[in-house]
Amino acid sequence: MSLVNRSKNTKSVSMSLRSGDCRKQAGSNRLQITVQSLDWRIPSQAVNMTIRDAQALRSFLNQYLDQ
Q1: How far apart are the first and last CA of the chain?
Q2: Residue 45 is part of which domain span?
């Protein structure tokens, strides 16, 4: 399995995906979504999840956003 590093940035959100790492270490295959704050007093907010959790989120969004 080859290592995959992908990222996508929009005006307010940054997404980063790292997968395909064959190491059995926690956190080696992850998705991170960061929402940039426009206010200097409030830090940017980030959500980190495993690839398995990201796939469950994708399934949920695909099912309910189309309704």
Answers
A1: 36
A2: 4-65
